[in-house]
Structure prediction request, 115 residues.
Amino acid sequence: MKKLAIVALTFAASLAASDLSGIWNGKGGFEDAKYGAVPSTAQLTLVQAGSTVSGTLKIGNGPVIHISNGSVSGSQITFAAGGGGTAALTANGSQLSGKLTSSTGKILDVVFSKQ
Prediction:
């Protein structure tokens, strides 16, 4: 019984540690065939409830974009952004990295650090 309690507490602690809620500041570059990576910044505000993620995204000086259909599975985070954009990110400690794809197909390779 004692071992079961220890396992349960360890599992609960690992779940609490994996909460991605908060403000994440990102740097990266848009993939461009002519110019290579064009530098850009982004800010991601996440609210996680279990395996569901919601929040907002702002790229550069652009408008705030609402996140929908967000989910977390292990270290993988996916969500829809605005009118057809998507994100596929991987959590690694205090960083999120991956690709944000706009509805027009522009891809931003980005690394976020928690604020």
Observations:
- The chain has a mean pLDDT of 87.
- The first strand starts at residue 22 and ends at 32.
